[in-house]
Amino acid sequence: MSNTALIKFDEKEISCPVIVGTEGEKAIDARNLRKDTGYIFYDQGYGNTGSCESAITYLDGDNGVLRHRGYPIEQLALYSDYVETAYLVIYGELPNLKQRNKFSELLAENAAIGTQMQRIFDGFPESAPPMGMLTSIVSSLAAYYPQYATNNFEQDLKTFDLAAPMTISRIRTIVAMIYRYRHGLPFIHPRDLPFCDNFLHMMFSDPYVAYTPIPEVTRALNLLLLLHADHEQNCSTSTVRMVASSGANMFTSISAGVCALSGPLHGGANSAVMHMLQSIHDEGDDGTRFIAAAKSGTKGNRLMGFGHAVYRNYDPRARIIGKACDELLNRLGKSDPLLDIAKHLEQAALHDDYFLTRKLYPNVDFYSGIIMRALGIPTDMFTVMFAIGRSPGWIANWKEVASNTKGRIYRPRQIYVGATKRDYTPLDQRR
Ligand code: ACO
């Protein structure tokens, strides 16, 4: 394999170095292209652009492969849990017992939201959308806890070691508080419980009756969060890196990621899937109408939970979560007609030429909503749940940017297609 690539144009030929990743992925290093030639690459949506080198997550969309720090997602889902996987994603290695205990302690110690910060909730109407609340409240962490708002990883390693578990733990607490606030329920303070049980306690305890953990439920929540822990350069993670590249602190960079997650084509898809399944159920349809509409090719009619910007195969997380839905409902002795509809829809789409030729398969969001429903989490909370899960990935990516002393500020270029130069028209001469 050649270690340079030749680009030929305008009778000219330039040679660019080729970069090869540890899994053999190849990239043309075009950093000097504009300087040497005056040209830039046009790549709307950056689908062919490597914006960074990263050692966190490997994703092979053609073959449905996902690994964090080298470990296959299937093995992590089977043997690990959310807290351990969060540590792995952030620090690069599975923790030993001492490291794991310390990380769990820090998560527990940093779960509470200070009383001043709690007042921020009072400014929101009870009907406020959870993601709208989460974006504002997470961004306020930098104001309430400026001493942990580290923006210089190199000089501030100790602060980072506190700020990382604090971010994960507090996003979880904020999400539980959003739920309580919107339901007119009193806030429940965190206790000395494992991460997922503590979340369920803050969501579902009453001041006079403590929530009793159910092992199947805890396990399912762990799996759900673990499967969302990181996913390479997705929209929200790239946003975190973009903001981090300006030198912004970790809390602020992550709040930008939460904003990016809110869109229905990204994190918002999980609740959109549930609305779609519910309307199929309510209309007594078998999904034919949704599939036919999805084939129109318009963005507004897409089959939610299907397709992916990088997978051209089954999203491995969808396989794991689909199986977990069945197991959880069996163990809880429940059934969910929406799961049956989802399975039917999946089969119909997987036998339809439109989806086959475009390589559109279920993604993680197709089944994650069914699990959350079984856990008692309302549909409008699904995307904020995703945000808890993704926080280790955002932190790890922030850390890579902040610790790269040679990194440049992210600043893509554009092809300008607006009006060419023209002279200012005074107001009385305008039509
Ligand atoms: N339903 C119907 N058609 C679709 C769908 C879908 N869900 N997804 C893509 N297509 C079509 C596109 O319109 C395009 O058609 P064309 O070739 O005739 O123009 C073709 O399939 C190829 O599209 P892609 O290039 O694969 O899609 P893109 O990368 O632009 O978008 C995305 C990826 C946003 C995830 C898209 O598949 C989608 O909107 N899916 C539904 C929303 C969803 O489930 N999002 C969650 C993603 S996972 C996550 O963020 C956690």
Can you walk me through this structure?
- By secondary structure, the protein is mostly helical.
- 49% of the residues lie in helices and 6% in strands.
- The strands form two sheets. Strands 1-2-3 form a three-stranded antiparallel sheet. It has a three-stranded antiparallel sheet with strand order 4-5-6.
- α6 packs antiparallel against α12 and α10 packs antiparallel against α18.
- The mean pLDDT is 93.
- Bound molecules: acetyl coenzyme *A.
Descriptors:
single chain; 3 domains; 19 helices; Citrate Synthase, domain 1; Cytochrome p450-Terp, domain 2; Rubrerythrin, domain 2; 49% helix; three-stranded antiparallel beta sheet; mainly alpha
Mind sketching the topology for me?
Layout: E1 4-9, E2 12-20, E3 26-28, H1 33-37, E4 57-60, E5 65-68, E6 71-72, H2 73-79, H3 82-91, H4 97-109, H5 115-118, H6 130-139, H7 141-144, H8 157-182, H9 195-204, H10 215-227, H11 235-244, H12 250-261, H13 269-283, H14 288-294, H15 316-332, H16 337-350, H17 353-357, H18 365-374, H19 382-402
The structure holds acetyl coenzyme *A.
Residues 265-266, 269, 294, 297, 302-309, 358, 360, 363-365 line the site of acetyl coenzyme *A (ACO).
